[in-house]
Amino acid sequence: MTSSDERFMRRALELAERGRGLTSPNPMVGAVVVAPSGAVVGEGVHMKAGAPHAEIEALRAAGPRARGAMLYLTLEPCAHQGRTPPCATAIVGAGVARVVAPLVDPNPLVAGRGFEVLRRAGVEVAVGLLAEEAALQNRVFFTAMRERRPHVTLKAAMTLDGKIADTQGASRWITGERARARAHRLRSEADAIIVGVTTVLRDDPELTVRLDEPWPREPYRVALDTEGRTPPGARFMSAGDPARAVVAVGDGVPEERVRPLRAVGATVIRCPTRDGRVDLGFLLGELFAREVRGVLVEGGGEVHAAFLDAGLVDRVAVFLAPLLVGGRAAPSVVGGAGRELKNGVRLGPLTVTPVGDDILVEADVIRGPREA
């Protein structure tokens, strides 16, 4: 690989970023077509499932100049008929001579088949450039394809002493306006937002994406409600498409409790229970079947603990406010029975970002045994 290869691949990754929050259930992908002279003759971005893929947009922009050119692509091209025709055959048909990509697509429908189509047609294929950066950019998609469940981000806002509300239960507002706007950006990147029924009953949230401009995608609004206590008049029911308001109840809840929810158009998912709670793994499987690839869990503390105890958290995003409220009874960011220090959930690497007067701390959950 050359320095120019890296430069063009970084441009492709930069283009892919424009699709953040818009492409699910597809990954973000960017593409750059470079003529033998070294001139960029076409660029493309995938912006929406069902819309042309990045390589198709780039090839269209390049036109006949794609013949004999190099194509820099942030993920293996598809080789199957989905919402759009296969891209690998289009690349061959355009006469591209060389394809550079960081990674194999983990989607079982692709998984190396796209590169195979290219190589069989005599196209040179180079794989591995900036693989780590490309994998991080599409971490949600990669987790979903690998685990066959959505990627889970635990999001919370807390005081510097770890409280998500005061002793009276008040939590508005722990963080400032800029942090709340950033939190809505996180929502915009998710396919579903999950809270517990206690949050629904106490705060009556809408669970919508509220940004400066209207957001074109509407995440599912999900309440964990083992006993079926969600009132049909809860605001998250009417905050958007009623069918995208989901109430996950235990499979033993009487039908008369959920009938009013269905009557207002909500989606009710009956789940088996585990330890007296909705089985979170089952629910995530149901959401995955609805093309949910990334979820944002917004708590509170007991819900956070349940996801962590089930080993279902992949990433955390915690806003820290410069406040101390104290109080033994004030809820903390993670409830539950707690863990011994040696068994704590390990995080890293940390990214710390000032957001107004607050701080956003983000990190992936580290899997596997503690290293010596």
| Low-confidence sequence ranges | none
Termini separation comes to: 36 Å
Number of E-type strands: 16
User: Order of SSEs, N→C?
Assistant: HEEHEHEHEHHEHEHEHEHEEEHEHEEE
User: What's the rounded overall pLDDT mean?
Assistant: 93
Structural class: alpha/beta
Main β-sheet description: 9 strands, mixed
CATH architecture of the largest domain: 3-Layer(aba) Sandwich
Q: In CATH terms, what is the fold-level topology of the largest domain?
A: Dihydrofolate Reductase, subunit A
Radius of gyration computed on alpha carbons: 23 Å
Tally of separate domains: 2
| CATH evolutionary superfamily of the largest domain | Dihydrofolate Reductase, subunit A
Q: How many separate helices?
A: 12
Arrangement of strands in the largest sheet: 10-9-8-7-13-6-14-16-15
Silhouette: elongated
Helix content: 25-40%
Walk me through the topology.
Elements: H1 3-16, E1 30-34, E2 40-45, H2 54-62, E3 70-73, H3 87-94, E4 98-101, H4 113-120, E5 124-127, H5 131-137, H6 139-147, E6 151-159, H7 177-188, E7 192-196, H8 197-203, E8 220-224, H9 235-238, E9 245-250, H10 255-263, E10 267-271, E11 273-274, E12 277-278, H11 280-289, E13 294-297, H12 301-309, E14 315-321, E15 351-355, E16 358-364
Helix pairs in contact: 3-4
